[in-house]
Amino acid sequence: MATPKSHGRKSIHATLKPRELMTDTPDLAGVWTAQIITLFPTAFPGVLGESLTGKALKDGLWQLQTFDLRHYGIGKHKNVDDTPAGGGAGMVLRADILEKAIIEARSSATGRMPLVYLSPRGPRFDQAMAQRLAQADGVTMLCGRFEGVDERVLDHFDIQEVSLGDFVMTGGEIAAQAMIDATVRLLPGVLGNAESAEEESFSNGLLEHPQYTKPAEWNGRAIPDVLLSGNHKKIAEWRREKSEELTKARRPDLWERTSAKERLNDS
């Protein structure tokens, strides 16, 4: 049986390896957990080990477990895939191999942890989905490769397919990291300032307003006077107005959904 690689809070000890977030320490109880089933466990934590998500990982605000599909492979070369039934290009991840990995991952899953397959066929990941995942106890993510996975696995385990967008990638690892990043930053204590998450794009159904900082004038461009006025009511009104303008211009689909929701609430 393969031992999943755990990433998170750790004790400091002498080592010849650089200090990193990948350790074999015991799992942290009651902590939001991301389980990743992948052919490339060394791709994690990747960028998740940097900045706020990396600090939160080291501080034990969330943890990461990877399950290497190759450990469950067959034969001398630990094969995990085979040719598509009915012919065609590429290779498909085998159902029996995936089953072993999924069962082991789910055996250590606690509480409410959705089982997700990163796939261009699924509904597109959005802020609302990130918020739902953040309210769960974690998530188990299956990262596909080649031509995908045996359909019977998706049906048998009732796996939810989720897409990062309307494009095709070589595998699910990058998509998984993007989804985890969007989710982890919503966990309590990760951002430090809860208002930051509330004011961001999509949090209220609109794109975020423009942001400015010092210097007050740069290359002949000045910060809008209202932002320097100290009038918080007018600043809030300006930001809302700019958010609406940007959303109408750049994401009319988002503006229509938001407007429809507001009309429904007013009726």
Instruction: Provide the residue-averaged pLDDT.
Output: 88
Poorly predicted sequence stretches spanning 5 or more consecutive residues:
10-25
Helix content: 25-40%
The first-to-last residue Cα distance is 58 Å
SSE order, one letter for each helix or strand: EEEHEEEHEHEHEHHEEHH
Strand tally is: 11
Principal-axes geometry comes out as elongated
Structural class comes to alpha/beta
Oligomer: single chain
Radius of gyration, CA atoms, in whole angstroms: 22 Å
Number of helices: 8
List the strand order in the largest sheet. 2-1-4-3-8-7-9
Strand content: 5-15%
Largest sheet: 7 strands, mixed
Q: Brief description of this entry?
A:
The chain has 267 residues and is an alpha/beta fold. The protein has helices at residues 51-58, 95-107, 127-135, 151-156, 173-184, 194-198, 232-250, 252-266; strands at 5-7, 22-23, 32-38, 62-68, 81-82, 92-93, 115-118, 138-142, 160-162, 217-218, 221-222. It has a seven-stranded mixed β-sheet with strand order 2-1-4-3-8-7-9, with helices on both faces. Strands 5-6 form a two-stranded antiparallel sheet. Strands 10-11 form a two-stranded antiparallel sheet.
Structural notes for this entry:
It is a single chain. The chain is α/β, with parallel strands linked by helices. Helices cover 33% and strands 15% of the residues. It contains eight helices and eleven strands. The protein has helices at 51-58, 95-107, 127-135, 151-156, 173-184, 194-198, 232-250, 252-266; strands at residues 5-7, 22-23, 32-38, 62-68, 81-82, 92-93, 115-118, 138-142, 160-162, 217-218, 221-222. The protein has a seven-stranded mixed beta sheet, with helices on both faces. It has a two-stranded antiparallel ribbon with strand order 5-6. α3 (127-135) links the parallel β7 and β8 (138-142). α3 (127-135) packs across α5 (173-184) and α7 (232-250) crosses α8. It is elongated and about 70 Å long. The N and C termini lie far apart (58 Å). The model is unreliable at 10-25 (pLDDT under 50).
